[in-house]
Each structure stands twice: as C-alpha cells, then as structure tokens.
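Exam revision sheet. Question 4 asks you to relate a sequence to its structure. Input first:
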Amino acid sequence: MNHVPDFGKPVVNRRRVLLGAAAIGGFLAVDLGAVLFATNTIGTRRLTPKAILDALAPPGGRPRGYRANHAKGVAVSGYFDSNGNAEEISRAAGFAPGRTAVLGRFSFGGANPHVADDPSLARGLGLAFDFPSGRQWRTAMLNLPVFPDKTPQGFYERTLATKPLASTGKPDPEAMPKFLAAHPETKAAMDIIKATKPSAGFADSTFRSLMAFYFVDDQGVRTPVRWSLEPMQEALPAGDGDDRLFDALVRQMRAGPLRWRLLLTVGEPQDPVADATVPWPAGRRVIDAGTITLDTIETDGPGNGRDINFDPLVLPDGIEPSEDPMLSARSAVYAASYRLRAGETPSIPPQVQVDKVEEVSQ
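Answer key, structure tokens:
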C-alpha cells in the first residue's frame, strides 16, 4: 500500500462549508434555474427544473425535507491529501501538496429515503472540498461506468418512462422500449452499465465524475479531464435487512478510516467532452492526484453533508465546466431541490440511524 503523507489532520470547518452551501444554493436556484434548458422543450413548453422535480417525485409526492434524488444516505467527513501531481494541469490551490478538509455523503439513487438497499441501484458519493482562499470544489459522483443520458431532455423522458402509473403502481411496459428506440445512445450506455458487475458495498466502489471538465493551468491551458475515486480497501460483507449495505459501511468506518485515490483521466482531442454516455478509451493517461480519507460517519442531520448542495458547477479557479449540457441541468435542478428542502422539516426520520447500527457477533 502506498505511503500516505502525514499533513496533520485538519479541523473540518463545517460552518464555512455549510454557509457556502446555503449562499451558493440559493443563488443558483434563482439564476441558473431561470435560464435552464433554453434549447430543450417539452412539446411546446420549455423544460424547467420543476418539470424534472415533478418527474422524479414518487407516487404520493416527494417526502418533505429530502433530496429529489438520492434521498437515502449518510453523512461523512474527512480530508484530501494532495501529492501535488495535479498541479501539472490545474492551478487550483487545493492541488498543491497539503491537506484539505472534506464533507460528503454516501447515498442510493431514487426519491425514497427508506428504499431497501439493493446492490443494483446507483450509489452516489458527494464531496465538498474546502479549498484555500474560501474556494470550494463540489462533486456528485456515481459508481456507474457511464451516465445513461446525453441530454436533459433524454433524462426527463427516461425518468417518465420508468415512473409507476397511478393505476397499476408499475411503469407502462411499453414506455421504456419506445424510449430506447428513440434514444440509441441511452440503450448503448445501459448495456455498458448492465455488463458492469457492481461491487460488494460502498467501501469498495469506484465513484466517477462521468461528465468531463477542463483543468486549467497557470498558462491558461485547458485539459479535458474525467475523474474517479479508486478504493484502497475491500468492503465488509453485507448482512441482511433493508439497510445491509449502509450497515456494513457504518461498521467498517467504526473500525477505521476508508481511503480512495483521486485519479484524473486525461482526455485526447478525439474524446467526447459533451456526451457522458460514451466511455473514453482504455489506456488514456491517468494522474494520481492524492488520497481522500473518510474517517467520520453520521446520520443525515443539521450541520453535516445532508445540508450541502453538491452542485457540479461549484468549482475553484483552475477547474471549468465542459460543454456537456447535463452539467447546467444538474446544477439548476440540484439548486431547486435544495431550495425546497432547506425550508422544510423532514416528514419522516432518516432510514439509516448510525448510532443504532449494531455490531455483528462473530
């Protein structure tokens, strides 16, 4: 195992990160939401954040106080040890050798905060890096090899195609085949996803940005990058019960911190930067930028990762968005969801209660 340099564990400045989350979340809900999807329409109407949120809502409506997607989760915190390698392609201050505090959240996809753990569901990891000079870097990653949709319109239509009908409680059996026939890029992406066996748990999952960004150096040179977190440990075996993957994660973090390598995959001129349904070829150059360590896990609650809007467009100087239309869409929808839940009291308690997870007898 590679040696991890000891920079001294930082005090995680939750107040500063969370205040930034509130300010940025509110700003984006007004500005980006107002101009979202200028070229995307639903029939003759413009596609809006509200339309996406309505499509994501389960029968009976969205549970108050929860995210519109990835509602079930737990909060984590830790730090990022940069080894300085990323300075070659980015001037972001947090890539200089040193340690940066991190707040985050593991989650399962979907709007149900009490959904039963299922290894086939998309797993998420959102992180907020407290970079120097008050500049934050936020990223919402998935354990998928590619993203299923090329455009916001495609995401919206696929969401509707999988939405249960009020009359049957199940999706229209004709909706998804019809959607895939009209969206061959999604069919190809889903074939890749289905062929990729999910890992045993959260601790051994590889989490990916999926969408491309530009890293910008001191000379203004822009390099296309997709990043991933490569696990440095195996996962504890999951037991039984609706929270078996989360319970295993809690038990493992009680025993010691979990670590991932931050890997930056450098794109070539022919690689797509505006279509996350297409994987970049194997063999692309990879820069090991350092190690992310997560050493604290908590029940979703005030003052931790529950309250952070993991907006992919909250970027430090030295990282810029690509032309991928999904980035502005995600940013605006995340902001609209954030603004809704920030003013609500949760209608039901979080499913995963960290302090109540019992140890497994040997």
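Marking note for examiners. The first strand starts at residue 41 and ends at 42.
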